Sequence to fold (627 residues):
Amino acid sequence: MKKQKSGSVWMILPLYIFTLVFVAGPLIYMVALSFAQPKAGHGVEWIFTLDNYRKILDPVYMKTFTGSFQLAVTSTIIICLIGYPFGYFMAKLSDKWKKRAMIFLMLPFWVNSLIRLYGWMIILQTKGLLNHVLKSLGLIEKPLRILYSYPAIVVGMTYVLVPFMILSVYSSAEKLDWSLVEAARDLGASPMKAFWTISFKLTLPGLLSGVILTFIPSMGLFFIADILGGNKIVLVGSLIQEQMTKGNNWPFAAALAVVLMILTTLMIMLYRKVTNAKELEGVG
Amino acid sequence: MKKLLVCALCAAMVVPALSVSVSADSKELVLYTWENMFPQEVLDGFEEETGIKVVYSNFDTDENMLEKLSMAKGGDYDIVVADDYIIETAIQEGLVEKLDTSKLSGWDNINPLYQGQFYDPNDEYTAPYGAGIPLIVYDPDMVDIDIKGYGDLWDESLEDSIALTANYRVINGITNLVLGQDFNDQNLDDIAKTGEKLLELAPNVRLIQDDNTQDSLLNGEASVAFLYTSQVTAALQENPDLKVVYPEEGLGFGVMGMFIPSEAPDKDEAYQFMDYILQPENAAKCFDYIGYYCTNKAADSLLENQNLVVPDSVTEGSAVENISTEAEEAYNKNWTEFKAACD
Fold:
C-alpha cells in the first residue's frame, strides 16, 4: 500500500513541475515585469515603478477596456441567441442525427481559425460573395461596406465562439430528464410554460458555462478585430500585442495583461457566486 | 583492436584540424546579415575576381546581431549589414570600425539622399545598402483629387478609403511633416499636436494593417494606401496603372547599412567586398534581388526594376531615429487614440 502511494507521487510530480515551470514561472515573471521600466530603444530596466498601472488609468487606455467589454457583451448575447436553441434542439435529435450534427459542428475545427477568418473576408469584402448575391437578388444597388467595420468583427467573434456555446448547452440539455417536461405537459402546462419552468431552468448551468466560455475569450481575441475589423478597434488584446512587438514596452504590456487577468478572474468568481457552481458545469 | 580504435579516433581529431588550417590559409570573409540579402551571382562573382570565399552567416533580428557582435567584442565577423537604428547603438558601443574611404573606389557612387543620417551623421562608419521607403499609392480611377503629398490624405473626399501600414512611428512621423515639424520630433507639446492632427485623419481610414496591405488596394476595399517598399512593388506588379506618390513633404525611410566590425579578423578582405558591392553593376544586381530602394546613384540606370529608383526631384528624407522613452510613449499613445477613433 505504501509503495503504491509513493509511486503515485512520482506520477504526479512531473505535472507539478510542469505547472510550476510553465504556468507559475511565466506568471511570476509577468507580474514582476509589470513593475519594471522600459529601456529606451528596447529591453527592460529592473527599477521598481507603479507607472505602468498608473498609465492604464489614462482615458485612452481605459477606453480599450470598456471597448473590449462592450464587444464581448454584444458577441456573447448574439452567441446565446444562436447557440442556445441550436444546442437545445440538437439534444432532441435521434442518436443517428446527433452524431451527424456533432460531426458538422466539429468539422470546421480541422481548419485553422485564421484561415476560416480569411474565408469570411472573401465573403464580406466589397467585391465579395455576399455583395454579389445581394446584388443579383436585386436587394441592394450599391455594394455594402461590411468588411473592416464593427458588425464584421461581431460576425467573426460569433462564428469562432458559437460552437463552445452549442456544445455546452447541448451537454446539459442531453442530461435533461424529458419525462419531467412530459409530466408538466400532462398537468396542463403550455409548451412555453413547460419550457421556461423546467427545460430552461435545468439547462441554465449549460448556458451560463457557455457564457463564461465565450465571454472570456472574446475579451482577448484580438486577431479577429485585426483581420475583419481592419485594426480600427483597439481591444485590450491588441494593445498588449502592440506594446510587446512595436511599442517595445514589455512592462506596460505586462501590466495590461495582469489587469485583464484580474478582471476575468473576478468575472469567473461572480459566475460561481451567481450559480453556486463549484466548477464549470456541463463542461467538466 | 583497441589500438586500431585509438588510431582511428586520433585521425578523426586531426582531420578537421587540418581542414581548418587549410581554410585559414586561403582567403575568407565572414559576411553577417539576414538571409537572402545578396544574390549568389554577386557572391560568386566576388570570389572569382578576388579569390576570397564568402562565408554567409545569418541572423534573424537586429538585436540578435548586436548581442553576438558585442559578445565577440567586435570580432568574429568581417562585414555586417543591418538596420539603421541598431547601427547607431553598435557605433556607440564601439563595435564599428571607422572607414578609410580611400580604400573604397566606389564610395562616391552612394546616393547622398541616404547619407548624413542620424546613425552615422558624418558618414564615417557605414555605406548604405538599400532603403525601405513607405510611399502613397493610389488608384486614379477611384480618387478624384491629385495626391501630391501626405497632407492630401486628410482630404475630405477620401472618407473611409485609406489603407495604412501599422508602423506607429512612421505614421506619427509623416503627420509631423504635414505640420511642418521634424519627422522625429521629441518635444512632448509638438507630439500632442501631432496626436490631434492624426485624429482628423481617422474618418478617412478604412483599415490599418501590416501584412499584405496592398491587397486592399487591389481588391477595391481601399482607393489609397500608404505602403512599405515590398508592398509598393507587389501592388505595381499586379496593377501597373496605380500611381505612386513621392510625397512633397519629404520621405520617411529606413536604411540598411554595411559596416566593418572594429575587431574584424579580415579587414582588407572586408574593404574589398564593400568596394565590390559599391560598383554600380554589382549594386544593381543586389537591389533588383532584395527589392529595396537603390542607395547607389551610379546603379540607378542599371536596375531592371526602375520602381526601386527614387526620382531625382526627391532630395529630402529622414529616417526613424531612436528617441527618448517619453517621446516614444507619447507617440504610442497618439497611435492608440488614433486607432480607436478610426472606427
